[in-house]
Amino acid sequence: MVAVSKSYDGGALAVDNVSLRIPKASYCCLLGPSGCGKTTTLRMLAGHESVTDGDVLIHNRNITDANQAQRGTSMMFQSYALFPHLSAIDNVAFSLKLKGVGKAARHAQAMEYLNLVQMESLAHRLPGQLSGGQQQRVALARSLITRPKVLLLDEPLSALDPFLRVLMRTELKRIQTELGITFVHVTHSQEEALALSDVMVVMNGGKIMQAGSAREVFEKPANAFVARFIGGHNVVERDGKPVAVRADKCRIVDGAIGPGIASTVISVEYQGPVVRINLKGDAGQDLCSLISDSRFFADPPAVGERVVLSWTADDECPLDVAA
């Protein structure tokens, strides 16, 4: 995407001068709050929204004005949108039927993709006879059978329960790696984006706040918005400038051993291997520390206790003030 913008009647700007290069055969997640422009960006890639300014290219071919069938993309919707009266195999084979492919040939191809998503044993069931996770696998196979250059996924895991969500994101990454095509995945979930992304794109207000590897974005957030939205960071002032410090690098102590903020323990959340301690700084800052369960239970701070949240200067990440 090169300097792409999308505005609507009345001048509302949904996407503002976005430029983004996604390497071939990579998994890219567009992440941000509601209204940030990520879904509009995905829809412009799919051809479901027109581009107001700029260009969209896939494999160096300009597809800005191409129709949906000519773009080399396929889109998997949040609702799955399976035909309720068709079996799983007929749902997957539907696009081939429209192209005039014979029943035996299209069923053979559909079975290959059902096998890819581990649904071959349920090929002849109707969508109403499948669980949410199973329906999602059928929808994925249906999107892949068109052999797109780029698969577009609009919050594909949001309707699943937490256990299935983790299972399916593992499957999505496996399939993307196995097929060697580009996936572009819109999500609200920071955990999902961190787990899946080769390229992680954080958006806000129609702009890209930061793009890079998941590790780069998490370890070196560009600005306070990214640090807060990704989570797991404290944004604090040092010498009049904002810095981010990872919550797992912060310690609860009686007195500062480096930079520190006098605070009060507000709540304690046991999360299994780690414990999250939420604090309120004396200047009103919302702060937290993530520590191992063994360290916490060796000397647990109590709610209401006065402590110091401390870290080392080497763990500070300077933030862009302008963003």
Could you list some keywords that capture this structure?
about 30% strand; globular; about 30% helix; single chain; alpha+beta; Rossmann fold; 9 helices; 2 domains
Q: How would you describe this structure to a colleague?
A:
Helix content is 28%, strand content 31%. It is an alpha+beta fold. The protein has 2 domains: 218 residues, P-loop containing nucleotide triphosphate hydrolases (Rossmann fold, 3-Layer(aba) Sandwich); 69 residues, Nucleic acid-binding proteins (OB fold (Dihydrolipoamide Acetyltransferase, E2P), Beta Barrel), CATH 2.40.50. The chain is globular, with a radius of gyration of 23 Å.
Instruction: Report the major sheet.
Output: 6 strands, mixed
Broad shape: globular
**Gyration radius, rounded:** 23 Å
User: What are the segments in which pLDDT stays under 50 over at least 5 consecutive residues?
Assistant: none
Number of strands: 19
Q: How many helix segments?
A: 9
Tell me the number of structural domains: 2
Classify the fold: give the CATH topology of the largest domain: Rossmann fold
